[in-house]
């Protein structure tokens, strides 16, 4: 009689199976970016307005120079409260941003990128080409890719 499979009929076509799903297929290219001289108050208002948890910091040539997050802003708020110092204009992105930024290659397989998220515990990776910011990949972007792939073989 043989063994019956509960997995259903398998896809035997060779079409998209061999194609890799790349970071560039799912990265966001329309980004909210910040400058090092922006005030933290400006950053906080932008994070709230656009419902984002952070963003890349670029110079006038669109070179990636850092990243600023909600955590960085909360650190500033916490320090201000602790030292009983009100927020002022000298509290800039450049003072609180993280300068040593991990980036991701646009040609990386999206599921290798997922592993990079797991091993680094980051929420987003800027995508850089020749030093210039060209996009950003978030954990949500990886989830979108996973939903689209669904039952296909993941490479």
UniProtKB/TrEMBL annotation:
InterPro entries for the chain: CBS_bac, CBS_dom, CBS_dom_sf, Diverse_CBS-Domain
Keywords in alphabetical order: CBS domain
Residue span, CBS domain: 27-87, 97-155
One matching Pfam family: CBS
Gene3D superfamilies documented for this protein: CBS-domain
Entry protein name: Inosine-5-monophosphate dehydrogenase
Species this chain originates from: Polaribacter porphyrae
Phylogenetic placement of the source organism: Bacteria, Pseudomonadati, Bacteroidota, Flavobacteriia, Flavobacteriales
């Amino acid at each position: 009689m043989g063994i019956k499979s509960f997995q259903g009929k398998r896809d035997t076509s060779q079409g998209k199976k061999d194609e890799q799903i790349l970071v560039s297929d799912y990265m966001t290219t329309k980004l909210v970016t910040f400058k090092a001289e922006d005030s933290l108050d400006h950053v906080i208002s932008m994070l709230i307005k656009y419902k984002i948890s952070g963003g890349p910091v670029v110079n006038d040539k669109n070179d990636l120079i850092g990243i600023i997050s909600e955590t960085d802003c909360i650190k500033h708020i916490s320090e201000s409260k602790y030292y009983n110092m009100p927020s002022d204009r000298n509290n800039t992105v450049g003072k609180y941003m993280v300068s040593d930024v991990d980036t991701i290659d646009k040609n990386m397989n999206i599921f290798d990128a997922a592993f990079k998220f797991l091993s680094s515990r980051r929420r987003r990776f800027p995508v850089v080409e020749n030093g210039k910011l060209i996009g950003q990949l978030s954990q949500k972007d990886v989830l979108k890719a996973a939903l689209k792939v669904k039952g296909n073989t993941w490479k």
